[in-house]
Records
---
Amino acid sequence: MKSPFTIFIKKLLIYTLIIGFLSLVLAFFLPDKIVSPAMPFLLLFFLIVNAVTMNIVLKTLAKKTSRFVNFFMISIFAKLMLYILIIVVYAIADVGDIVSFIITFFIYYLAFTVFELFAILKAQKENV
């Protein structure tokens, strides 16, 4: 039987490819100033962050439920701080497309957070 993490990674890769394809299609129809050139890097960034977080969450979930809740709250806070740091560093770098970067970042953040939340809820339900 496949591990829950392996199943999650496959679903995450498919989800990322779908989001990437939709982003590429939208990039052809939207004006250049709305589309951030950092879009593919943001996709990769969210893929990696979600994979690492979910790996740790699944390991923590297997140990203790009370420990899972603590880790889950800490991981949300840590990711939020990381996301803010990325946006601030990009703004300081003054690349010139900060507005499109933030819009793209926020859309990807919402998309990947919803995906991760459903995956965690499913894993928690299966662990009970």
---
Amino acid sequence: MVIHFKSKLLACVLGTFLPGTGLNWLYLKGPQCPWLYLHLITITLGTLGWFDLTHSEHKSLLSWFAVSLGEISLLTSWLTSIVLGLRPDPRFDAYFNPTTTKKINLAGL
């Protein structure tokens, strides 16, 4: 099994600009990561709850709960991007790139 180099920048961009989709976890950990499916379920419930609220004059308590789950998914995705972005490069490489020889090089920036 070949493990590809994981870019910290790409993981942060996915989590910031596509929040709640879980694509940053799909990129970092693959399809076996439970956070990917949890994000997909909660963002779907939040979207369905939002659509229900727009058609029910904001009276459905279950829809408000679903929307809050979707919002929590968005916020945790943004928080994960911040945490991953601020993680030191050697620690990120040790966790997500344990067997690759390529390392993050920010000297060219």
---
Amino acid sequence: MFLDPAYNELTRKRKVAGARAAQKALLNDLVEKLYVAKDAEERITRGVVSLAEEKGVQVVYVDTMKELGEFAGLRVAASVCAILKAAKSQGKQGN
């Protein structure tokens, strides 16, 4: 069972699923936290995990791809899910 207290984070925050999408977000410094399924193929997750570690992004491991997909609100299993950083306000501040 997925017991990480960040369950609400996975269901409520903006996210991208899949190794390619997560890698692209990491390259653009958009990732707050990376979730990786322990049963995902290492050849798929190795590069994105390495990049997350280089960028100083926390990596959290989840038992199964099915579990990660479900808790991320997806209809399919997921090897990787990246929580995106909150968008910064672009509005003007005081004059």
---
Amino acid sequence: MTIDWLRDLFIIIFAIIATGVLLFIGFMTISLYRRAKLALDAILDTAEMVRAISSFVKNEVSNTRPLVQAMTIIQGIREGVDIINRLFRNKR
């Protein structure tokens, strides 16, 4: 065994180990990508669901706006009547 032969042996062993490490890193990267893609798809589905719910709530709130306005007017009239009643009660 000469030094040249040992050098070539170490180069071959290093090449085999480096190939194995690169294959392992490649498999791990693909696995991580698939998991991240599943998580991102779930997040996108959740965002779409939140968008649909907020759109529904917005439509329902806009449908109740006339009722809220009417209730506000009634409450204002009631408060006005209560204030007038308190003014006349204090004078007695």
